[in-house]
Amino acid sequence: MEDITELFRPETKQFGQVIIKNYHEFRGNTVRWSAAYFGCLFGSATLSALAALFLKLEVLRDSPKLRTDIAAFLATVAALLVTLSTTGDFQRKWQANRVAAGEMENLAYELIRPSVDSQVPVQHVSHV
């Protein structure tokens, strides 16, 4: 996207740079929300499986209290991760940032079209 700034017409160059900046911000947010969402999702599944594994491990048969404490801890953290992801609406935020980044990218490409009125992309941004 950086190379596209060379293609902006002089009257749209500043606006185009703002669009590119917004694009990078949305892409960065997409990565962070994706990490939060999938980290919680896969972390929860992994911790739940580990909780079940600790309950079954024979290697800890001489320490039943330790075994159940570890399993309870893992199950609790797994439940908290699911709750955090759900109540924080991480999936929606991840998807919304993906869509917004795509819109900014489309606007940047729209600005390099020679036949486009410079006000059309500005009006489109107000609807994003």
How is this structure best described in words?
- The structure is a single chain.
- The protein is mostly helical and 128 residues long.
- The chain contains four helices and no strands.
- The longest helix is centred in the first third of the chain and has 44 residues, at 13-56.
Keywords:
128 residues; mainly alpha; 0% strand; rod-shaped
Question: How are the elements arranged and paired?
Answer:
Blueprint: H1 13-56, H2 64-87, H3 90-111, H4 119-125
Helix pairs in contact: 1-2, 1-3
Summarize the structure.
With 128 residues, this protein is mainly alpha-helical.
Instruction: Indicate the structural class.
Output: mainly alpha
Helix content: over 70%
Strand fraction band? Answer: under 5%
- Poorly predicted regions are none
Query: How many extended strands?
Result: 0
